[in-house]
Amino acid sequence: MNIAILLDLMADSFGDRTAITDDRGSVSYADLRALARAAGADLATAGSATLAFADVCSVAVPTALFGAAWAGAAYAPLNFRLPAESLKAQVGRLDTPLTVASEGLTPALGTPAVSTSEWQDRLERVEAGTDGGPYVDDPGNPAVILFTSGSSGSPKAAVLTHDNLCSYVMDTVEFAGAGEDEGLLLAAPPFHIAGVAAVLTSVYSGRRILPLPAFTPEAWLEKARTGGVTHAFVVPTMLARIVQCMDADPGLSVPTLRAISYGGARMAAPVLERALELFPEAQFVNAYGLTETSSTIAVLGPEEHREALASGDPEVRRRLASVGRPLPGVEIAIVSDSGAAVEVGTRGFIRVRGAQVGGRYLDSASSLDDGGWLVTGDVGSIDGSGYLYVEGRADDVIIRGGENLSPSEIEDTLLRHPGVAAVAVVGVPDAEWGESVAAAVVLTPTLAGRPEDEISDELAGWVRGHLGSLKTPGRYVICDDLPLTGSGKVLRRVVRDRLAPDGAGAPISPGSVEPMKGEAL
Amino acid sequence: MILKPGLRLRSQVGETEMVVIKGSGDHELACGGVAVVPLGEPVAEGVEMASGQDGAALMGKRYTDAADSVEILCTKPGPGALSLDGQPLEVKSAKALPASD
Q1: Interface of A with B in 83-122 (CB under 8 A)
Q2: Total domain count for chain A?
Q3: What does DSSP assign to residue A341?
Q4: Cα(A433)–Cα(A428) distance, rounded to whole angstroms?
């Protein structure tokens, strides 16, 4: 099945309903289909097999996504914040691309690159018809190509087929299941799997999309309060900043907001607990997934959040830190490094299989094993009730004297100290222990300005008191900000390089890998 | 009729429209006891629902056979029960999942 059918069905059944409202106005499902058909015809005229897109979210995003599908081409949304050279290299890996990009990027990308507004104007002149079909139907074809953020190395281009994405959408979302009043505040960037999946699931469920082109907590709150937003997806760094903003201005509230889902990186427990207090009426959903799995593979639902928060039972309360249970049609298992199943509750490698799992990359063979399993590269465990706990990337586990330590547990403990605003805990080479534990810390005003020795002693004492000396970082480096990927993952290899003994003293610059700081997301 | 995912169909006894979302092969898919036709093809006039085949297909619901080998999504509701090779299709009752994107 071609993902074009998701829009085609809505346009036939609810053509007049609003699909998306951006700065240029509102577009109905019928009009969005006409735009997508025009984009498909335009792509066919250009003889392109790929539509590359490098701009912020607007109606151009669903136009490009579904337009490529209509032409049987692939849609490749690119991280428009990357340096032009990196973007050019990514475009160069694509099959006969037509590139649509923001005004500022087109000169650097070369031909054939067209600016988003020029492209949109051009589509208005394309005669492509407004009714449904026909579209090229080759379910195994690439529908979407996504360059991964490269938090563990150079970017890979993950390929998702029409079948992968249709399985995900149709197995998890009810067709036209959203109420007419529902609106999704779309703050995930178009080049992130959450941004792609949100467009597909919103269209299929009939939920209006309200794109937020550039995230700031103020802009997010403003749009949420005035746009009739009922649903929102945020990455943890966004929620942390929204919570800070609301704490600073106790008058702020978003009464229309019914559901907040979050994912993309690990959420710090203190941020989540505060958000649950600030949005008492909202349903919280934790979604865990990967680019390679067409977005979500496990969810912790709203009742589970509230139940965990209210429970006196430590086992139940602990579930707030889990990502819930697998979606229907998805199997998740924990295996040892030899690939054997481990016992309940034991830490190991997370693997997954199901129709929505792609596991293919551009220019390489499938990375699925003979049984159809994808090894995610994450480590975690599954408890007796089936709840999945994700500890982080396998590469990030710290091995100190043969003992496996999870950075996430140490980070959560440090974040509970009132003097800590953000933290990344990493393992650094150590002659005696193999690896030792080090922390890069962003301070709040509570500790800022105090002598470094005093801060180190204070934080070491705090962690030792909660977790014992084995897990206590031996070294603390104070920095202004942490280097993050576009989705808010800490770039640990950058932190690790700086905290390694031979990198001592070098400043941790947030701009060192991706220009990701402050407003950018 | 050869079914395959993505094939869109309509009833001959009412307004019902549907799409095959799972399963393939040669099957007799009927609405109200009368074979459905591909969307866009002519509908026979004056066709009556077969007796005992009343019922309705509901918007957005998924219908499946006992073996769960074929799945049909209703995209426009209408009268008449859905059946596959003479056997009634049942509503697939999936627990509603919270929106996660």
Answers
A1: none
A2: 2
A3: B
A4: 10
Q: Look up the CATH number of the domain holding residue A475.
A: 3.30.300.30
Decide if B101 touches A, using CB distance below 8 A. yes
Pairing of strands A434-443, A420-430: antiparallel
DSSP string, A485-517: -TTS-B-HHHHHHHHSGGGTT----TTSSS---
List the single residue in A with minimal CA-CA distance to B19.
Answer: A9
A363: CATH: 2.30.38.10
Residues of B in contact with A205 (CB under 8 A): 99
Q: Do B75 and A13 touch (CB under 8 A)?
A: yes
Q: Do A259 and B99 touch (CB under 8 A)?
A: yes
Taking contacts as CB-CB distances below 8 angstroms, the residues of chain A near B17 are 12-13
Helical (H) or strand (E) element with A299? strand A295-300
- Position A161 in a domain: no
pLDDT digits (tens, 9 = 90+) for B71-98: 999 999 999 999 999 999 999 876 678 8
Residue A509 has pLDDT above 50, yes or no: no
Give the structural domain span for A360: 328-393
User: Touching check for A128 and chain B: CB below 8 Å?
Assistant: no
Q: What span, in angstroms and rounded, lies between the C-alpha atoms of A397 and A434?
A: 13
- Residues A485 and A414 placed together within one structural domain of the fold: yes
